[in-house]
Each structure stands twice: as C-alpha cells, then as structure tokens.
Amino acid sequence: QVQLVESGGGLVQTGGSLRLSCTASGRNFSNYNMAWFRQAPGKEREFVAAITWRGDRTFYADSVKGRFTVSRDKPKNTVYLQMNILKPEDTAVYYCAADRSPAVSRYDLTSVLIYDYWGQGTQVTVSS
C-alpha cells in the first residue's frame, strides 16, 4: 500500500521556523517528482514547492520564495520543507504529493492535477 506521511507541523510564532517531513512507503519514490501544497480554511489547495525526481530542479510559489526550501533524501524516501520567517498567512494544512510522470517543467509541477499520491496533511499554525 502506497502511503505518504507528513510530520513536523505545529504552532509557531511569526518569524519562527518549522521543518516538515514527508516519508513515502509502499514503493520506491526515488523516480517521483515530489511537491508540497497547502490549503487554508475556505480556500483552494495551492502549490508551495516542488522538487524534480532527479533533485536537480526546485520550484516555489512566489509567496514563499526565499523563505522556504524543499529538499529530498532518496535513500530515506523522504522529502522535506524547511520553512523560515513564517507569517500568519502561511497558516494552513500542508500536503505532500508524489508524481510518477517524467514532467520537469514548472508549469506541470505546480498543478494539483499531475500528482498521483497525496498525504493526509499536517497542520501549520502561525500566530501573530
């Protein structure tokens, strides 16, 4: 059974940091593009960051560029999202996603439609 399990969410003050982890199980995800999305109450799920299956390209939403960093550890089947200088508007449920296609363009990897597997989400709350 394929599973993506996120962890690392929590409550943090404005300006603080968190590191989210997403560990995949059930198959080898080393050839999968991986991404983070988030969804705030009453809003649509939005792209946050992605890393290609090779790990040689990363993409970020403009709202997080310069503050968030996505990375992956292939032997551990894990992808990370380091979030710094957090703001109240970063408050959301954060989801990990995996895509098995060979797509490597920003246009493709920022779309929710391309991803085949999703985690259950982890809550991030930033207090002002």
Overview of the structural elements:
It is a single chain. 35% of the residues are buried. The model has no long low-confidence stretch (mean pLDDT 95). This protein has 128 residues and is mostly beta strands. It starts with a strand and ends with a strand. It has one helix at 106-109, and strands spanning 3-7, 10-13, 18-25, 33-39, 46-51, 58-60, 68-73, 78-83, 92-99, 117-118, 122-127. The strands form two sheets. Strands 2, 4, 5, 6, 9, 10 and 11 form a seven-stranded mixed sheet that branches. It has one helix and eleven strands.
What are the defining features of this structure?
single chain; 128 residues; mainly beta; 4-stranded antiparallel β-sheet; 1 helix
Strand-helix topology:
Elements: E1 3-7, E2 10-13, E3 18-25, E4 33-39, E5 46-51, E6 58-60, E7 68-73, E8 78-83, E9 92-99, H1 106-109, E10 117-118, E11 122-127
Parallel strand pairs: 2-11
Antiparallel strand pairs: 1-3, 3-8, 4-5, 4-9, 5-6, 7-8, 9-10, 9-11
Give a brief outline of the structure:
It is built from one helix and eleven strands, in the order βββββββββαββ. It has 128 residues and is mainly beta.
Uncertain ranges: none
Helix content: under 10%
Q: The biggest beta sheet, please? A: 7 strands, mixed
General form: globular
Count the helices. How many? 1
| H and E order | EEEEEEEEEHEE
Could you tell me the number of beta strands?
11
Report how far the terminal alpha carbons are from each other.
40 Å
Helix/strand class = mainly beta
Strand % is over 45%
Mean of pLDDT: 95
| Backbone CA Rg | 13 Å
